[in-house]
């Protein structure tokens, strides 16, 4: 069958090349594009899913046109159904977990206020040391200064009172062990 004066295999192949290239390019610049759309308040379908769907449809259509003698309208339906399944699997098992994992590792300075840690480099009077804060996403080491300008020795439990310009303002804190 021919469409626009070209055989369907050729149309599928060019669509595959163009959509595959656009998908790869979008993956490289997706954060910028997403930020632009978010800043102007436009919410569109996920371009990764749309481009992946078109890539899978064109790849399936090309292969089925080349390798089978099934009618062209049936090939479009088969490749669309397969693409829908593949894109759904891609979204559920790859894109959604990646998006949620990316968000769970982020923290801001205000998130550290009120957290406990320990001194790993002693804090001298009127000077800076370093504290280690343990959390679900890992350990965070931050420069620290004593809130009352007193010295705090190494391995002392601390409480973060404030965060200013990336420096934790801390005070010694006694951890209470509760009986079980």
Q: Your description of this structure?
A:
The chain is α+β, with helices and mostly antiparallel strands. The chain has two domains: 2-104, no CATH class; 109-172, OB fold (Dihydrolipoamide Acetyltransferase, E2P). Helix content is 50%, strand content 23%. It has four helices and seven strands, in the order E-E-H-H-H-H-E-E-E-E-E. The protein has a five-stranded mixed barrel. Strands 1-2 form a two-stranded antiparallel ribbon. Strand 1 (2-3) and strand 2 form a beta hairpin. Helix 1 runs antiparallel to helix 2 (47-67) and helix 2 (47-67) runs antiparallel to helix 3. The longest helix is centred in the middle third of the chain and has 33 residues, at 72-104.
Which runs of at least 5 residues are low in confidence (pLDDT < 50)? none
Number of DSSP strands? Answer: 7
Strand order of the largest sheet: 3-4-5-7-6
Question: Overall pLDDT, averaged?
Answer: 85
Shape: rod-shaped
Give a summary of the structure in a few sentences.
By secondary structure, the chain is α+β, with helices and mostly antiparallel strands.
List keywords for this structure.
about 180 residues; OB fold (Dihydrolipoamide Acetyltransferase, E2P); 5-stranded mixed barrel; about 50% helix; about 25% strand; rod-shaped
């Amino acid at each position: 069958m021919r469409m626009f004066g070209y055989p369907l295999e050729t149309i599928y192949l060019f669509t595959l090349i163009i959509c595959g290239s656009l998908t790869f390019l979008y993956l490289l610049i997706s954060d910028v594009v997403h930020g632009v759309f978010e800043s102007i308040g436009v919410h569109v379908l996920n371009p990764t899913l749309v481009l992946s769907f078109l890539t899978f449809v064109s790849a399936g259509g090309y292969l089925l046109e080349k390798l089978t003698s099934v009618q062209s309208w049936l090939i479009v339906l088969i490749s669309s159904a397969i693409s829908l399944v593949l894109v759904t699997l891609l979204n559920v098992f790859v894109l959604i977990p990646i998006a949620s994992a990316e968000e769970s590792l982020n923290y801001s300075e205000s998130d550290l206020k009120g957290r406990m840690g320990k001194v790993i480099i002693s804090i001298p009077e009127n000077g800076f040391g370093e504290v280690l804060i343990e959390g679900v996403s890992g350990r965070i080491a931050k420069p620290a200064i004593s809130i009352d300008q007193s010295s705090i020795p190494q391995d002392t439990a601390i409480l973060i009172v404030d965060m200013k310009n990336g420096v934790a303002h801390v005070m010694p804190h006694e951890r209470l062990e509760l009986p079980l």
